[in-house]
Amino acid sequence: MDMPKSQRFHKRLRGRVDMTHGAGGKAMANLIHDLFSRAFDNEWLAQGNDFALLDLPPGRPVMTTDSYVVSPLFFPGGDIGKLAVHGTVNDLAMAGAEPLYLSAGFILEEGLPFADLERIVLSMAEAAHEAGVCIVTGDTKVVERGKGDGVFINTAGLGVVPDWVEVAPSGDAARPGDRVLVSGTVGDHGICILGTREGLRFESDVQSDTAPLNGLVAAMTIIEPDLRVLRDPTRGGLATTLNEIAHQSRCGIRIREDAVRVKPAVAAACELLGIDPLYAANEGKLVAICAPEDAEELLHVMRQHPRGRDATIIGEVVEAEHPFVELETTFGGRRLLDWLTGEQLPRIC
Amino acid sequence: MDMPKSQRFHKRLRGRVDMTHGAGGKAMANLIHDLFSRAFDNEWLAQGNDFALLDLPPGRPVMTTDSYVVSPLFFPGGDIGKLAVHGTVNDLAMAGAEPLYLSAGFILEEGLPFADLERIVLSMAEAAHEAGVCIVTGDTKVVERGKGDGVFINTAGLGVVPDWVEVAPSGDAARPGDRVLVSGTVGDHGICILGTREGLRFESDVQSDTAPLNGLVAAMTIIEPDLRVLRDPTRGGLATTLNEIAHQSRCGIRIREDAVRVKPAVAAACELLGIDPLYAANEGKLVAICAPEDAEELLHVMRQHPRGRDATIIGEVVEAEHPFVELETTFGGRRLLDWLTGEQLPRIC
């Protein structure tokens, strides 16, 4: 009882997850108290209820969710915990909302080392702190060995679109003439995961770009641009995201290959693996579509922000009877960029 | 193209889930469009964004989450889909909130028959309709065969505690003298799942009690009782829930065995399986703790409601230096009811 808190923390977290940690009894209560409540440390979790009673600032509430099943759990530049915070924070940011609260649901596989779980949970806590959100409510389940894969995490997010935003960006709002911007290089996350999984050693470091984008979006909205669409090109990559938008907005999108930035190390790995970087996942990039007259100023503002330093205008929206996405290649040719159709990169997030 | 919508629906849903359905491309978009958006049918899903922009009535927002990993996926009285709606609706109701919106995150195992997924999703849609909530945003992931178990579902819920509720019920609000009520029989869900899993055939039907409790809570609050605590005794059962409350409120709780109702068929199965029904999960029952002067009227109101017909006052809160829960047995003896310590019933919800 006289042991310092931190020491007790570590003492209890040796060993591995077993079925009792999901049974609803004392072992689960201890796990929640010793790990989750401590790491995420806030008034809501301290209350020990199965819910969180929240305060929301004025504006329109936004809700989102994602489950994370990335394999491997740890990779250069991040881990499943960081991804679970960033991904959901970014979905809120893409609605033009200020992310505020997250829930976290863990599905643990029997046998998961507590050391791994602790590392993931502390990483989530750090990511939440950086993004300015609180993890206010949660849940833990355990499944038998061979019925899961280490850990799956679901986060749901709640945020608010401030009252002064008249029209929240939406995938169906792109109009002919609008400009298409991307906040940086593409393919980093997908190639990092695939490379790690395949045990490839890249010459240069290929790291996941996992990052919260709410700060960048806040900076972008300061100039009050006529922002039609915001979306983060995660699974399926930039090409699939543009197809989704073309489909929702019933328009065509033309982009220029030489305006889309790909890190040299990522480009080299793509060549080696036979992957098109336009279809590889990103976890810290956004696509913005805005009115043509705001494009240059928006680009300028994005480039001032650390998460938008490599932003470019990659193309524009055109009128079309049937939605399409077309790439003008570096050599001046044109080809259609279709949806991702196969299983290029499973369990990328 | 001239085929009726319903026929196309069924045509596409033959076969099994494969890795492409989680890859973020066309197969996933089709699955979302053909199954989820149709079954849950609402304006938010129709927009096709990764978020839902919501309206909330006046009051305090409440957020909660649970993941569902129940095995088997289908059982007498319900299935994982129904459970995923009821469980989260009930967590909101236990905050005294009106449940409004749910998110749904699916983790599918490669090889899951679409027929099973469709049955689960339609069951969720029906449960959501009955409880008066909308499933407004979602996510689908697929994991390789042997890395999951059919389907896991996470739901997060958003509701609002109306402004006229001055103090929302909370686990730390029980006071000495308060009365403890239970809304009906205990152990039904836990024994149903265990029996189904073990392939037992009970003489009488033992069915899960899975049900939404927001209607019952709304009826209870009409008389404006001094309601300190509301909680649904799920994993760990009634005994564990009472221990949680005793712990949070720093009090003792004394209950009478003969006041706790157990269906005869459940009692018989418990005897056969060596399970104490006080530790078996419930999915459509609540524990209410209220000021002594309101107990009889509250009981009366609960019994008028279909979900509270078998409600009883089972005991009272007492002052205590160390939290405890004590059972007065039918024969007049007393024994302590501890937390569930082992792994009585894994994957019960």
How are the elements arranged and paired?
Two copies of one chain form a homodimer.
Chain A lengths: L4 H8 L13 H15 L2 H5 L4 E2 L6 E9 L5 E2 L2 E2 H14 L4 E12 L4 H18 L2 E10 L7 E11 L17 E4 L5 H10 L16 H8 L5 E5 L5 H13 L2 E5 L7 H10 L13 E4 L4 H10 L7 E7 L5 E5 L5 E3 L13
Parallel strand pairs in A: 5-6, 10-13
Antiparallel strand pairs in A: 2-7, 3-4, 5-7, 8-11, 8-12, 9-11, 10-12, 13-14
Describe this structure in words.
2 copies of one chain form a homodimer. The first copy, chain A, is an alpha+beta fold and 349 residues long. In chain A, 32% of the residues lie in helices and 23% in strands. Chain A has 10 helices and 14 strands. Chain A has helices at residues 5-12, 26-40, 43-47, 80-93, 114-131, 188-197, 214-221, 237-249, 264-273, 295-304; strands at 52-53, 60-68, 74-75, 78-79, 98-109, 134-143, 151-161, 179-182, 227-231, 252-256, 287-290, 312-318, 324-328, 334-336. In chain A, strands 9-11-8-12-10-13-14 form a 7-stranded mixed β-sheet. Chain A has a 4-stranded mixed β-sheet with strand order 2-7-5-6. In chain A, helix 5 (114-131) links the parallel strand 5 (98-109) and strand 6 (134-143). In chain A, helix 4 packs parallel to helix 5 (114-131). The longest helix of chain A has 18 residues, at 114-131. The model of chain A is unreliable at 1-11 (pLDDT under 50).
